[in-house]
């Protein structure tokens, strides 16, 4: 099963469009405010659907939920590729959000169900970190493939078409999962979904440790969701300003630099995720490890702000990579901390609630950041990204002292 879990992550992250998403939207003539609005719309849709779909997955079967999720991805990729106006892009974001809503939390619940079945529940951080490392390795492979396609065809939009292939292969992978990973399903579906939903929400709101974890997810994961794609326009501006590869077109120079930087980013992210358990043990546990990551996150956003303010592009690029590494140390520890407090039969719903917390933050912040970026002068255009990250990190560190007391 571990191989199939890793294969899922590898195929899931064959999203060749991801390192070029903002550039593809810019190719379609969108400004950063509209791009932020699209991302915010996607996050709102995920936010509205995520907890109910987690409950549906827990009751109706997690394998079916994952298959439906990937069918949604395929439909979204087709619309993204064909859209020539703004409104179909909102439709694509809605369909993509359906896919994300059914996926988030569900597969992690299947991993934890397998660990319980095998009597290995004490290996949550290690196992999830290992499978996540294969996801990031998949991203490293995908960015090289995507960059090669962009280099050859000089078109960012075509990568939506080739993203359909791995999504279809993953559906075949899900059909090989054993039935017991569907979870303890109930007979009376409507009542079961409602009971699962209300019990999970009660756990998240009434348990103090769970409330804190949701707040941390909103801070750490939410700001990362908002900020990480802004690496793409920074890389494009850097590629066009470098006195190398002058014989190549702008799109080809961008493809080379994006491919190289994102390959390193995903490779290091894979290593970070795989060694998250070692980082946790070195820090003295998941909670202490998370505290150290908050400190490092604050320092990174401070340096990012300095790099963007002074126009030091190489520093800004390096910090974006560092933030991705920290997020991949963070994610396995956060999921393990949540699983420690969650009931097994409500795992997918609670993990979907956690995912909803960070998407809520992103839904509000993404349009604001995009609008702010459009208003900034060219020499400090992306400074709002760093400023928001720094403010959120400082706020979480300040409240952590109170929470610990």
Q: Would you write up a description of this structure?
A:
The chain has helices at residues 2-12, 21-27, 32-60, 62-82, 86-103, 106-118, 124-153, 159-162, 164-174, 189-206, 208-227, 231-241, 250-274, 276-283, 286-310, 313-341, 347-375, 383-404. The protein is mainly alpha-helical. It has a single domain (2-176, 189-404), classed as MFS general substrate transporter like domains (Growth Hormone, Chain: A, Up-down Bundle). Helix 4 (62-82) packs antiparallel against helix 5, helix 7 (124-153) runs antiparallel to helix 13 and helix 11 packs antiparallel against helix 18. The longest helix has 30 residues, at 124-153. It is globular. Mean pLDDT is 80; it is low at 186-190.
Which bin fits the share of residues in helices? over 70%
- N-to-C terminal Cα separation, in Å? 42 Å
- Overall, the morphology is globular
Please indicate the count of domains.
Answer: 1
Run of helices and strands: HHHHHHHHHHHHHHHHHH
Beta-strand content estimate: under 5%
User: For the CA atoms, what is the radius of gyration?
Assistant: 20 Å
Q: Unreliable stretches, pLDDT < 50, 5 or more residues?
A: 186-190
The CATH homologous superfamily: MFS general substrate transporter like domains
- CATH architectural group: Up-down Bundle
CATH level 3 topology: Growth Hormone, Chain: A
Number of helical segments with 4 or more residues: 18
Mean pLDDT: 80
Q: Class in CATH?
A: Mainly Alpha
Counting DSSP E segments of at least 2 residues, the number of strands comes to 0
């Amino acid at each position: 099963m571990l191989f199939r879990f890793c294969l899922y992550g590898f195929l899931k992250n064959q999203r060749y469009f991801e390192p070029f998403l903002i550039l593809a939207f810019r190719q379609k003539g969108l400004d950063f405010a509209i791009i932020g609005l699209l991302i915010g719309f996607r996050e709102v849709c995920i936010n509205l659907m995520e907890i109910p779909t987690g409950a549906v997955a827990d009751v109706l079967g997690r394998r079916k939920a994952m298959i439906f999720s990937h069918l949604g991805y395929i439909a979204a990729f087709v619309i993204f590729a064909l859209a020539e106006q703004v409104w179909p892009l909102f439709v694509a974001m809605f369909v993509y959000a359906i896919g994300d809503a059914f996926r988030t939390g569900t597969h992690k619940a299947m991993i934890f169900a397998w660990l319980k079945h095998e009597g290995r529940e004490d290996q949550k951080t290690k196992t999830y970190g290992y499978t996540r490392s294969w996801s990031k390795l998949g991203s490293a492979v995908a960015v090289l493939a995507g960059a090669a396609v962009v280099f050859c065809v000089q078109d960012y939009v075509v990568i939506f078409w080739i993203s359909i292939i791995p999504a279809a292969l993953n559906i075949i992978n899900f059909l090989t999962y054993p039935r017991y990973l569907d979870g303890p399903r109930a007979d009376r579906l409507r009542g079961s979904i409602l009971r699962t939903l209300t019990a999970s929400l009660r756990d998240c709101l009434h348990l103090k440790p769970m409330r804190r974890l949701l707040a941390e997810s909103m801070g750490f994961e939410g700001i990362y969701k908002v900020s990480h794609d802004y690496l793409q326009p920074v890389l494009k501006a850097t590629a066009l300003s470098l006195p190398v590869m002058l014989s190549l077109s702008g799109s080809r120079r961008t493809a080379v630099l994006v491919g190289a930087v994102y390959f390193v980013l995903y490779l290091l992210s894979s290593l970070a995720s795989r060694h998250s358990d070692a980082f946790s043990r070195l820090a003295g546990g998941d909670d202490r490890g998370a505290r150290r990551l908050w400190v490092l996150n604050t320092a990174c956003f401070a340096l990012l702000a300095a790099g963007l303010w002074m126009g030091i592009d190489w520093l800004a690029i390096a910090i974006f990579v560092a933030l991705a590494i920290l997020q991949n140390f963070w994610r396995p520890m956060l999921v393990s901390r949540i699983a420690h407090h969650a009931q097994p039969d409500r795992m997918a719903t609670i993990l979907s609630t956690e995912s909803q917390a960070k998407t809520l933050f992103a839904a509000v912040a993404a349009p604001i950041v995009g609008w702010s970026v459009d208003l900034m002068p060219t020499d400090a255009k992306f400074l709002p990204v760093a400023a928001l990250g720094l403010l959120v990190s400082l706020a979480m560190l300040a409240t952590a002292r109170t929470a610990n007391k």
